Amino acid sequence: MRRRGLGALGASTGAAEARELRDGDPSRYRGLGCRRAVASINRDLNQATAGRPFGSQAELDQFLVALDDTPDKSRLGANALLAVSLAFARAAALEQDMTLYAYFANLVGRSPVLRG
User: Fold this and answer.
1) CA 14 – CA 106 distance, rounded (Å)
2) How far is CA 111 from CA 19, 65, 85, 92, in A?
3) Block means of pLDDT (10 residues each) for the chain, length 116 residues?
4) For position 113, what pLDDT does the model report?
5) Cβ atoms of 54 and 62 closer than 8 Å
6) Contact 107, 60 (CB under 8 A)
7) Cα torsion for 67, 20, 61, 88, to the nearest 10°?
8) Is 65 exposed, middle or buried (0-12, 13-18, 19+ CB in 10 A)?
9) 3: buried, middle or exposed (CB in 10 Å: 19+, 13-18, 0-12)?
10) What is the pLDDT of residue 116?
11) What pLDDT score does 15 carry?
């Protein structure tokens, strides 16, 4: 598998991995700024999801993947899709009066456990 490294940052991206939207402006956060991802959320993702009911985390996540419609999540950005998914999870956990870790445990059919 060919990997493209990001030097001292310690991150690399393989050909099949989800792609984040980064700004590429070397004067801001060494090109790793996320203004493009935020714009994707504020414009495309907000427009597509506002007022639309989602019955479950899986339903929202499937909708987001279909909306992006690229194998590597490069159109809307994996970081933008993840942010929206996590915001939904946090809101759903609050709605169900659960902690976020308990909500995630419930999604996978497990009891919530915190290990130290």
Assistant:
1) 31
2) 32, 28, 21, 17
3) 42 72 91 94 97 96 96 94 97 96 94 81
4) 82
5) no
6) no
7) -120
8) middle
9) exposed
10) 77
11) 65
CB atoms within 10 A of CB 84: 21
d(CA 39, CA 62): 21
User: What pLDDT score does 21 carry?
Assistant: 87
Residue with tokens 């919530």: 112
- Asked whether the beta carbons of 73 and 18 are under 8 A apart, the reply is yes
Q: Which two tokens stand for residue 115?
A: 């290990």
SS3 of the chain: the string is CCEEECHHHCCEEECCCCCCCCCCCCCCHHHCCCHHHHHHHHHHHHHHHCCCCCCCHHHHHHHHHHHHCCCCCCCCCHHHHHHHHHHHHHHHHHHCCCCHHHHHHHHCCCCCCCCC
Q: Which of 9, 26, 7, 5 is nearest to 17 (CA)?
A: 5
Give residue 102's pLDDT: 95
| Max Cα-Cα span within the chain | 46
